[in-house]
Amino acid sequence: MLESLRSQRLLALFCAALALFNFPLLALWDRDLTVLGVPLFPAALFALWALLIGTLALILEGRDD
Amino acid sequence: MLPAPLVIGVAFAYLSLLFAVASFGDRRARQGRSVIGNAWVYALSMAVYCSAWTYFGSVGRAASGGVWFLPIYLGPMLAMILAWMLLRKMIRIARAYRITSIADFIASRYGKSSALAGLVTLITVVGLVPYIALQLKGIAAAYALMTQSAGAATGSAAPWWTDSTLYLALALAGFTIVFGARHLDSAERHEGMVAAIAFESLVKLLAFLAVGSFVVWGLFDGLGDLFAQAQAVPELARLLTLGQGKTFAYEQWFALTMLSALSVVFLPRQFQVMVVENVDERHLKRAAWAFPLYLLLINLFVLPIALAGLLHFGAGADAEGFVLTLPLAAGHAGLALLAFVGGLSAATGMVIVEAIAVSTMVCNDLVMPMLLRTRRFRVAQAAAGSDLTGFLLAIRRAAIVAILLLGYLYYRLAGEAYALVGIGLISFAAVAQFAPAMLGGMYWKGGTRAGALAGLGAGFAVWVYTLLLPSFAKSGWLGRELLANGAFGWELLRPEALFGLKRLDYLTHSLFWSLLANAGLYVAVSLWRAPSARETSQALLFVDVFKRTAAAGPVFWRGRAHVADLLPLLGRFLGVQRATALFEDYARRQGVARIEQLQPEPQLVQFVETQLAGAIGSASARVMVASVAEEESLDLDDVMLILEEASQLRAYAHALEEKSRSLERATAELRSANEQLKSLDRLKDDFMSSVTHELRTPLTSIRALAEVMRDDAEMPAEQRQEFLGIVVGETERLSRLVNQVLDMAKIESGHAEWHNSDVDLRMLLTQAVHTTEAMFRERGASLSLQMPQTVPTLRADADRLMQVLLNLLSNAAKFVPAGDGRVELRLDADAAGVTVSVSDNGPGVPVGQRALIFEKFRQGGDALSRPQGTGLGLPISRHIVEHFGGRIWLEPDTAQGACFKVWLPWQASSRDADRSTGDQT
User: Which residue of A has its CA nearest to B253?
Assistant: First the structure.
């Protein structure tokens, strides 16, 4: 399962996602701020999500190692 | 509010469109031009995950809990990160062994156990029928919102035969039968259905985005305005924070994320579209990120719509209907209809795929094993030898209708009860029970049938006790005392605080206990006894699926079988025509012309069993094959022996392949060496003929002149003198030629002598100019010399370098126009080496000959105007320069004349020089 670089990257991304979406990193975004009128917490959740999708696409669509 | 006929008309028009899309997909599939063989369509079909529960329910959840609707979609994001490893393995296994449902997957892994298949099917049916009911309720509620004024009673009060939901359920059953169970396919692939589902995913996304954009930019002045207004209301501002005034329930957040991550892989409809309907496993690469992107997009406007609805209708309003009621309240009937169609898409897509997946399970993993167990059925079908495909299809169709009617029944019975509203997550928790047996089965060879049965059974029991029964109790169908006091009045057995565990919410609590019991018993019971031979063989096939292919893998079967038995067996379940085609195909691959010539090897038996498994499930296929073949039972040692034989065979094949590859390489090397030899031989011939030709020309003229002088005794003295001068000149030319040929041969063979010393290049060039001065003066040409003031010494053979210089200078002297020739000799030095250039104002070298002049006997100029020379000067010069690590070349673009350059490095020359000095001793 760990034979290729891609698999290792995916596992690392999974761990990062798990950490980002749980305690205590999630609590960092709970502030009374707004980004372009959108409260920080929901905005941060969607931004992190988009970031993960982008990284996943980069890992999967890149050239085969 | 809209007229009911309009809404019903739109709904049925949409279903007809779906029908058209599906039949288009089927038609294209038959023509071999699949519309679903595309990663984007695959990703869209995965979005069947978003049911009506997403479409309407997310807004409801957001209205009451803020961001708490999100974990249901963050879970799939997590799962999709691992899809490339996890799902690809599932797809590979399912394809290799013709697995068509999650029940079959688990049953097949643990020794093709029909008991396991039945248990998984039971869990699925119990867990998912209410979920189907929820979809029907979603459509009914949406219909009610569209056609009735706010606050009116919902349609469930009307008598059942006037209930449009029933007809919708029947229409969906019809659709599912037409596109999901029209004919029997041993791979259970339904291209038309997948095309329709992908289309539905597109419709629901666009509809939801349209409503969201309308709400944000139509009803409000952009996101900033909407959120600012919401922030002004204290209850709404609370929704936008993490904890909403309380401590944030991280464990629940984590549990929800994990739960949805498991569901997105193990829900039967997801298994159907992601694994069974997968066309090419490489599509996963794109779908694994495109599907989460889809989820992100469809969730983008959930919070804005919820807030807008709460601002518009007030806190008490039915938030699940906001998607419809907001456009309706604004008077946008068209948009509301679009939103309704989107909701319809979400619900129907889920119902169709779930019904297909569950009906396959019910047929293959529940009904068939039971029928095969009854002796009467076995005797009857064996005696009749009849075609059972119609019978199988009838079971599937009946199962589809039954599932949808059961869903409808549950919807009618439950109505507004909690047991229906809360079912989404409860269903998720039911399918999460498959995780230990599935994941363990794919990555751990030690899992056994008993372990899987114990784990699944315990997990399911705990799920029923801690989630399903409490939901019944909350609906008022059971006494509430169960919740308050526990079974038998035991405080410790309270369903939502089992063994006194009170800190968790009901869902996390149930998930914790059920998965703990499930995984714990799975591992513990598996470790209790060593796996049997059949369990081991299946474990090897599943866990190591990437290491060996089904075609080249080991076959764990021994016994005697006859083609005459196997072919009719396959024909009974797949139809005689298809079975014959499959056998012919197999025979072709074995290199046999006719079916009768096939040897009934274990491979053939396995092939038949795999094909059969696609139609009736692996457990039933096992029973059927066993009924026509005389089998030897294998023990664990036999399994290991077969595995070893297979891996040895593989090793031999590998070694053979390696050997043939190295032979090929050696052959190629030999061939190229031979080519090289041949071309060298040709060069030698050329050289010989050139040399003899060059020798003959002066010899001829010497002989001719000598004969003239011998025969003509009275020749005038001055003419004789002149002839003798020519003879001497030609002789000199001959000896020069012979010397150069010898020189060339010496250099080429590496026997030349090199006398290296520290050469002062300035002195060398000056000397060369003095030597050639007379020659230039004779031709009326001028020679100029340009050198830097100081040049370091170069370790080289001064005589050889002089030879190069003289050759270049005499060439230049020969080619410059008589009378006003100009030749420039130039020396440049830099850090790497020195460059000597000789440029003239002669005619230059024609483009076609530039590459040739450094080769032997290739003189510049045409044959007539060619000055005297041997054609060996430049090749010798090149050899000398290259000996010192430098190079000689003709400047490619000079305006007039030719410019030869010699470059010699400081470094390489010294190294070479040392070696050469050693050579001469």
Answer: A22
ipTM: 0.93
Mean pLDDT for chain B overall: 81
Is A31 an interface residue toward B (CB < 8 Å)?
Answer: no
What residues of chain A lie within 8 A of the CB of B254, using their CB?
Answer: 22-23
pLDDT of residue B520: 92
Token pair recorded at residue B286:
């794109």
The Cα–Cα gap between B368 and B366 comes to 6
CB atoms within 10 A of CB B696: 11
Q: What is the 3-state secondary structure of B672-684?
A: HHHHHHHHHHHHH
Cβ distance B803 to B877 under 8 Å?
yes
- Beta carbon pairs, A and B, within 8 Å: 97
Output the CA–CA distances (angstroms, integers) from residue B744 to B734, B852, B873, B876, B879, in the order listed. Answer: 15, 17, 9, 6, 8
SS3 B913: helix
Is the pTM higher than 0.80? The answer reads no
Return the pLDDT at B757.
83
Specify the pLDDT at position B381.
62
Phi–psi pair at B891, nearest 5 degrees:
-55, 125
Buried b (16+ CB within 10 A) or exposed e, B793-806: ebbbbbebbbbbbb
CA distance A19 to chain B (A): 10
Name which of A13, A36, A46 is nearest B81 (Cβ-Cβ). A13
| Cross-chain residue pair B289–A39, CB shorter than 8 Å | no
B812 contacts B823 by C-beta, under 8 angstroms: yes
To the nearest whole Å, the CA of B155 is away from the closest chain A CA by: 37
CA-wise closest residue to B106 among B573, B538, B620:
B538
Q: What is the DSSP string of B428-482?
A: HHHHHTHHHHHHHHHH-TT--HHHHHHHHHHHHHHHIIIIIHHHHHHTTSS-THH
CA distance B257 to B508: 11
* Cα-based torsion angle of the residue sequence B121, B125, B127, B128 in order, rounded to the nearest 10 degrees: 120
The amino acid present at B640, given as its one-letter code, is: M
Under-70 pLDDT residues of chain B: 1, 149-162, 183-188, 242-247, 375-386, 415-421, 482, 486-487, 489, 548-553, 856-871, 895, 907-921
For residue B560, give the 3-state DSSP assignment. strand
- Non-local CB neighbours of B831 within 8 Å, separated by 6+ positions: none
Instruction: Answer whether B241's CB lies under 8 Å from A41's CB.
Output: yes
pLDDT at B376: 65
Give the C-alpha separation, B476 to B413, whole Å: 12
Cα Rg for chain A, rounded, in angstroms?
A: 15
pLDDT of residue B915: 44
| Sign of the dihedral through C-alpha B330, B333, B334, B337 | positive
Rounded to whole angstroms, the Cα distance separating B397 from B892 reads: 82
Q: How far is A56 from chain B (nearest CA, A)?
A: 6
Supply the pLDDT for residue B862. 47
pLDDT tens-digit readout, B61-76: 888 888 888 888 999 9
Q: What is the pLDDT of residues B221-247, one digit of tens each?
A: 888 888 888 888 877 877 777 666 566
**DSSP 8-state symbol, A28:** G
DSSP state string for B391-429: HHHHHHHHHHHHHHHHHHHHHHHHTT-HHHHTHHHHHHH
Max intra-chain CA distance, chain B: 154
